[in-house]
Amino acid sequence: MVFGILSNNEAKKERKGWMKQATEGPCNVPKPGVLDFINKAKWDAWNALGSLPKETARHNYVDLVSSLSASSESSIQVTPAADRKQPGSDALVVTSQDGITTITLNRPDKKNALTTQMYHDIMLALEAASKDDSAITVLTGNGDYYCSGNDLTNFTDIPPGGVEEKARSGAVLLRDFVDRFIDFPKPLVAVVNGPAVGISVTILGLFDIVYATDRATFHTPFSHLGQSPEGCSSYTFPKIMGPSKATEMLVFGKKLTAREACTQGLVTEVFPDSTFQKEVWVRLKAYSKLPPNAMRISKQVIRNTEKEKLHAINAEESNILRERWLSDECMNAVVSFLSKKAKL
Ligand SMILES: CCCCCC/C=C/C(=O)SCCNC(=O)CCNC(=O)[C@H](O)C(C)(C)COP(=O)(O)OP(=O)(O)OC[C@H]1O[C@@H](n2cnc3c(N)ncnc32)[C@H](O)[C@@H]1OP(=O)(O)O
């Protein structure tokens, strides 16, 4: 690692310097006055990097962010990739009962944020569910959240190929992950047991039914994070709720209540939290007794005409996000979250 352990303030100034060098090249603005302490400190950090190439600065900036995560002096705790939960661990629980295969996100202490490993495990679980003898597949969460979206510490796990390689492999993973939802052959139901954020919201447009507790909220803060929509939401959301409501969510990050999401057509039905689990599972058990082949074929009739288009949109969104992940705006948002300065 390029950097040692820095105090929070030192790290912040140093980070600013690397970030400016990475995005704008060598320092090209006049030195602020001596009384302008903050800007002068930032200018000093930038100027100290001399004519270092942008690319080197970008690599070092990412290393610094990673070192922030690993630093024992910082308040940030990041589990190293090697220590993250492995397939078959309890971060994802898959059960099959009464003709229903249920995939449960099970990191309640992290609001069910999705680690890289979990994306892979969900894909495996969907693959298995598509072939098992269940009639319906359900995705839900354990604890007070449905899912807080992509685990932002995924960004700190930089491979030897650097940040570009990380963005490239992330885009491939994203595209594969969303493709599985586009192609899933059986009725797919989201049982949204609490707030949903980011990618856990966008992929709802690819589900067949979305049941939500009245405690759930639906939040896609992509602009706040310097990112852009995925999960085919750039197509499904305008189609479901109209372009203007979709823009409020996907561009301006408006958080919807469960009832608003239901009115907009993203959610099928909202239940009182006190009876949510009971009512939903009674309903799903009844549906799961319907003839499975008829349900599968009816789903195909409804969905198949759009598949090709959805795959093309997924590819395009993933490419755009690959660029976004390298942007100053995105890196700053991730650093802010990891430094505990920002929450949604
Ligand atoms: C293959 C790659 C595909 C990527 C596709 C692109 C995907 C995009 C997205 O999904 S964008 C959305 C990303 N998510 C966020 O920005 C949410 C960040 N989290 C928060 O803002 C808040 O944690 C909260 C509003 C969800 C909940 O707040 P609160 O109720 O106050 O709880 P805590 O913040 O104390 O959370 C408890 C614990 O969980 C950790 N955590 C929660 N969400 C995430 C997350 N998305 N990534 C990493 N960690 C998360 C949080 O840091 C706390 O950890 P701690 O107890 O402090 O160790």
Describe the structure concisely for a colleague:
It holds the Pfam family ACBP. This protein is of the alpha/beta class.
Account of the protein in words:
The protein has about 350 residues and is α/β, with parallel strands linked by helices. The protein folds into 2 domains: about 10-75, Up-down Bundle (Acyl-CoA Binding Protein); about 80-325, 2-enoyl-CoA Hydratase, Chain A, domain 1 (Alpha-Beta Complex), CATH 3.90.226.10. Helices cover about 50% and strands about 10% of the residues. The chain has 13 helices and 9 strands. It has helices spanning about 10-25, 35-45, 55-70, 115-130, 160-185, 200, 235-240, 245-250, 260-265, 275-285, 290-305, 305-325, 330-340, and strands at about 90-95, 100-105, 135-140, 190, 195, 210-215, 215-220, 255, 270. A 6-stranded mixed sheet has the order 1-2-3-4-6-9, sandwiched between helices. Strands 5-7-8 form a 3-stranded mixed sheet. The protein is elongated and about 75 Å long. The two termini are about 30 Å apart. Bound molecules: ligand LQSD347O. The site of ligand LQSD347O has 23 residues, from helix 5. GO terms for molecular function: delta(3)-delta(2)-enoyl-CoA isomerase activity; fatty-acyl-CoA binding. It is found in: Peroxisome. One of its GO terms (cellular component) is peroxisome. Its EC number is 5.3.3.8.
